[in-house]
Automatic annotation (TrEMBL):
This is Signal recognition particle protein. It catalyses: GTP + H2O = GDP + phosphate + H(+). SUPFAM superfamilies: P-loop containing nucleoside triphosphate hydrolases, Signal peptide-binding domain. One of its GO terms (cellular component) is signal recognition particle. PANTHER family: SIGNAL RECOGNITION PARTICLE 54K PROTEIN SRP54, SIGNAL RECOGNITION PARTICLE SUBUNIT SRP54. It comes from Winogradskyella flava. Its EC number is 3.6.5.4. The gene is ffh. Its main location: cytoplasm. Belongs to the GTP-binding SRP family. SRP54 subfamily.
Amino acid sequence: MFNNLSDKLDKALHVLKGHGSITEVNVAETLKEVRRALLDADVNFKIAKEFTNKVKEKALGQNVLTTLQPGQLMVKIVKDELTELMGGDVEGINLSGNPSIVLMSGLQGSGKTTFSGKLANYLKNKKTKKPLLVACDVYRPAAIDQLHVVGDQINVEVFSDKGNNDPVAIAQAGVAHAKANGFNVVIIDTAGRLAVDEAMMTEISNIHKAIEPQETLFVVDSMTGQDAVNTAKAFNDILNFDGVILTKLDGDTRGGAAISIKSVVNKPIKFIGTGEKMEAIDVFYPSRMADRILGMGDVVSLVERAQEQFDEEEARKLQKKIAKNQFGFDDFLKQIQQIKKMGNMKDLIGMIPGAGKMMKDIDIDDDAFKGIEAIIHSMTPAERSNPSIINSSRKKRIGKGSGTSVQEVNQLLKQFTQMSKMMKMMQGGGGKRMMQAMKN
Ligand code: GDP
């Protein structure tokens, strides 16, 4: 995420951090570099200029030049300003109605349908919410089907009316259906166009007036940079929306949209989309995002993601299995699947302070587990629960079945044995024994 920008800001600030004496000249030089980095990231010129002016003002106000660690203080000022620019405090969505109506708006391809599904899934997992998805794109039958596919995937009901070509009527019928059937959140997916046009604006505005949503969200593809900001402005003029959803932040986004949008429309970014999967949704925390942009990682989000996937009941079962030496490849597979649900690998590593920078040029395949999974899938149930029966002819068969080699099968078996040993040691609380096992 934002690798290029992070890199350039790091270089700009590095000069200051490393300097024995900091002068007004090199502060000015640094700020010029910071501004250039922001412009390269497709941040609006005016915003970039205001940003560096504010940083300069603060730096002078806080007498940066005479403090003990001027470089650190400069980084802090830049971080605070960046946080402020992206919205300051985190803002949730308003779900006070019964049902609460959430209206999605945005261009075609921005990720509305995908995000509608992600939001429904996110709310469903909160247990107190029972969401209904409503398909209001009457122009593309495929769009309705797509929402149904998403709904099936996350087990959320989808309301649609394929023959009907009046999106306002469908939205109203969807809300009525929710009321009659005990849904407490209605998420309305609407039709977008490739560019802002009058017919689309009239339509979304009519839906908005008819259903009076508690929350109108504008979904925008962060890869579109300055265009994203212009589109946001056009939609906001008509809808006066409540918040922005920035999608596709997992891609090679330069960051301009994330940094500029708040100050142009004065509406907060509420969620971000970080992948195509239903789990790839995050609440937008300006301060955490600033940390990430400045290469400071985001451990808090990393821990939260791990917690989301953590199932206490499962963990207890697993503990028992480990204690009884019954931890098998099926359990291992489950663990891998949980890690995969946390997000894409590069994104996760980027959350570890310092690691993102170190690993930025290393291509981390999201299918890093593919080989391992294929090997495990090629094992029989008996082999999975009792790997010790895997002799050389079985290894050959597994290698062949999984499209890997006997060496790779051997390697996995060895790693698995070591891991099982280690887990048992850790459970027994024997730190010393664990150290011993590591030496062996
Ligand atoms: P809509 O036309 O606004 O409903 O957009 P869709 O939901 O159909 O999304 C358009 C494309 O973008 C699809 O291929 C999605 O899988 C993809 N997409 C949506 N959100 C994200 C995201 O956060 N990251 C990535 N990488 N792809 C996304």
